[in-house]
């Protein structure tokens, strides 16, 4: 990573926007603007490509599954719905940079869908949320994490963006449901992409629309079962 990239990573800006675009945590208007920049701005597109590579290991914990035929059929309909003729459409699309970028994004979205939504037949009466994401933004700190929660795998994947812990301190992840006291999910292991298992009772809290927060704690985590240090990052969960 060169000096410019390091500076952008520390300051946020375009680098943070690119990361949230890849993860899917941007709002509709911001995502549309980022998509346009991804087509038109080569520097921004490189940031998006880098984040796709950085966040890809978060899916390593999930076994691949065979995608449903309906997904490909749906992509075909969206990609070729406005084609005048098959021959004309193919000639124009194969030469279109926008098409290849769009196909890459669609393929990544489909891959995320394959990972997150295992096929079940018949479906259970009450299906938990498949996959949720959160951008845990800095709270009077420089700590920033991206989070992917997979309800079926009972797993939380965390991608470390910025902020370092001291050698005698740890980051601890908490789930906060409405006005209830925070409950610890666990100490966040050091590393760029890490995972935490989620207990059954915490799954229920997350499914009900809880918020994630990260506190700075003594080495090994809070000694009291409640946050003892400052909250350094927080964010709510969104459906993919």
UniProtKB/TrEMBL annotation:
<feature type="domain" description="Anti-sigma K factor RskA C-terminal">
    <location>
        <begin position="105"/>
        <end position="231"/>
    </location>
</feature>
<keyword id="KW-0472">Membrane</keyword>
<dbReference type="InterPro" id="IPR051474">
    <property type="entry name" value="Anti-sigma-K/W_factor"/>
</dbReference>
<keyword id="KW-0812">Transmembrane</keyword>
<dbReference type="GO" id="GO:0006417">
    <property type="term" value="P:regulation of translation"/>
</dbReference>
<keyword id="KW-1133">Transmembrane helix</keyword>
<feature type="region of interest" description="Disordered">
    <location>
        <begin position="219"/>
        <end position="240"/>
    </location>
</feature>
<dbReference type="GO" id="GO:0016989">
    <property type="term" value="F:sigma factor antagonist activity"/>
</dbReference>
<dbReference type="Pfam" id="PF10099">
    <property type="entry name" value="RskA_C"/>
</dbReference>
<dbReference type="InterPro" id="IPR018764">
    <property type="entry name" value="RskA_C"/>
</dbReference>
<protein>
    <submittedName>
        <fullName>Anti-sigma-K factor RskA</fullName>
    </submittedName>
</protein>
<feature type="transmembrane region" description="Helical">
    <location>
        <begin position="98"/>
        <end position="117"/>
    </location>
</feature>
<dbReference type="GO" id="GO:0005886">
    <property type="term" value="C:plasma membrane"/>
</dbReference>
């Amino acid at each position: 990573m060169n000096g410019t990239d390091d500076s952008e990573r520390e300051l946020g800006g375009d680098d943070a926007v690119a990361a949230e675009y890849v993860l899917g945590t941007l709002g509709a208007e911001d995502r549309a603007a980022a998509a346009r920049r991804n087509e038109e701005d080569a520097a921004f597109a490189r940031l998006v490509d880098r984040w796709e590579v950085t966040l890809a290991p978060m899916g390593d914990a999930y076994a691949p599954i065979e995608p449903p035929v309906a997904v490909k059929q749906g992509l075909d309909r969206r990609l070729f719905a406005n084609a005048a003729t098959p021959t004309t459409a193919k000639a124009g699309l194969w030469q279109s940079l926008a098409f290849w970028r769009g196909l890459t994004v669609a393929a990544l979205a489909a891959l995320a869908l394959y990972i997150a939504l295992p096929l079940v037949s018949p479906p259970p009466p009450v299906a938990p949320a498949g996959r949720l994401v959160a951008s845990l933004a800095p709270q009077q700190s420089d700590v920033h994490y991206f989070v992917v929660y997979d309800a079926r795998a009972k797993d939380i994947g965390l991608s470390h963006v910025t902020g370092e812990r001291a050698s005698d301190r740890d980051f601890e992840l908490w789930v906060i449901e409405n006005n209830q006291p925070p409950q610890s999910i666990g100490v966040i292991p050091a590393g760029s992409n890490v995972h935490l298992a989620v207990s059954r009772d915490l799954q229920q809290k997350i499914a009900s629309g809880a918020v994630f927060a990260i506190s700075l704690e003594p080495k090994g985590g809070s000694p009291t079962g409640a946050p003892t240090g400052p909250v350094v990052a927080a964010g709510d969960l969104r459906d993919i």
